[in-house]
């Protein structure tokens, strides 16, 4: 079957996101394993990161289900997730429940930068461990001096040339941000957080910084609900659906 440009771009978006998941796990000393149709991780992963991420559509379902069963046999404690990147699996028989559905999106690298002019805002790339700790606290919506939560984004990330952690400063305080990760064809945009006031322009600001850091690269990611609508207003187009499944420990 011939692939359309959208199909090809979707595959790049899926692979980019799996690479990002593996990068976060890797800096925690728990790297996963890439296979032909799925990425898996038999260790406990950081919060919000799955133990499996499918890399192919329904044609590879049998191989993907076999690998997910190996994760079940590994006895990973607690609830853990599978990112069904093409929303093509039925994991209910394996004891999972749907957590949420979302949509892959993309914005061409050749598109014009959106309007992101906000008075008094300074955008920068996070470059120090102290700044990163403040960024994560802002992303979580917690005070900057919070110490009782283990960090997800470790300073080792700052050494990756393909990763850019973006912050918007207002009067010395981080008020918005995002993470960009570059793979061969695209740049993934994730972990976006913006204030409720003037949220559209802050989202646009995140996009503009990514475009400056990675010129002419198509920006990809996934969103749901009102966030999806907001990014569509910035010129992002839908690529396809995905579903996050979570192991149902209530069974």
Give the strand line-up of the largest sheet.
Answer: 1-2-3-4-11-5-10-9-8-7-6
Main sheet specs: 11 strands, mixed
Percent in helix: 25-40%
Q: Total domains, how many?
A: 2
Task: Using the coordinates shown, work out and report the CATH topology of the largest domain.
Answer: Aminopeptidase
Protein architecture, described:
It is a single chain. By secondary structure, the protein is α+β, with helices and mostly antiparallel strands. The protein folds into two domains: 5-105 and 241-247, no CATH class; 121-238, 3-Layer(aba) Sandwich (Aminopeptidase), CATH 3.40.630. 29% of the residues lie in helices and 29% in strands. It is built from five helices and eleven strands. The chain has helices at residues 5-27, 61-74, 129-140, 199-213, 225-232, and strands spanning 33-34, 38-40, 52-54, 81-84, 96-107, 121-125, 163-170, 173-182, 186-193, 218-223, 237-247. Strands 1-2-3-4-11-5-10-9-8-7-6 form an eleven-stranded mixed sheet, with helices on both faces. Strand 3, helix 2 (61-74) and strand 4 form a beta-alpha-beta unit. The radius of gyration is 18 Å and the shape is globular. The termini are far apart. The model has no long low-confidence stretch (mean pLDDT 94).
């Amino acid at each position: 079957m011939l692939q359309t440009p959208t199909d090809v771009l979707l595959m790049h978006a899926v692979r980019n996101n799996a690479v990002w998941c593996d990068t976060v796990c890797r800096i925690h000393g728990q790297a996963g394993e890439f296979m032909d149709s799925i990425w898996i991780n038999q260790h406990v992963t950081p919060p919000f990161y799955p133990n499996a991420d499918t890399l192919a559509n329904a044609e590879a379902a049998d191989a993907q289900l076999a690998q997910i069963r190996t994760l079940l046999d590994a006895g990973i404690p607690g609830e853990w997730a599978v990112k069904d990147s093409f929303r093509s699996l039925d994991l209910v028989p394996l004891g999972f429940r749907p957590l949420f559905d979302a949509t892959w999106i993309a914005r061409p690298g050749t598109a014009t930068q959106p309007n992101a002019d906000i008075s008094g805002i300074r955008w920068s790339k996070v470059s120090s461990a102290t700044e990163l700790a403040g960024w994560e606290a802002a992303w979580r919506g917690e005070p900057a001096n919070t110490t009782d939560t283990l960090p997800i984004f470790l300073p080792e990330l700052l050494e990756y040339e393909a990763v850019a952690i973006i912050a918007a400063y207002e009067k010395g305080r981080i008020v918005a941000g995002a993470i960009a990760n570059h793979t061969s064809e695209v740049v993934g945009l994730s972990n976006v957080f913006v204030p409720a006031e003037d949220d559209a322009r802050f989202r646009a600001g995140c996009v503009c910084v990514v475009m400056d850091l990675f010129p002419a690269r198509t920006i990809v990611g996934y969103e749901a609900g009102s966030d999806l609508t907001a990014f569509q207003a910035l010129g992002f187009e839908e690529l396809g659906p995905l579903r996050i499944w979570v192991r149902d420990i209530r069974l």
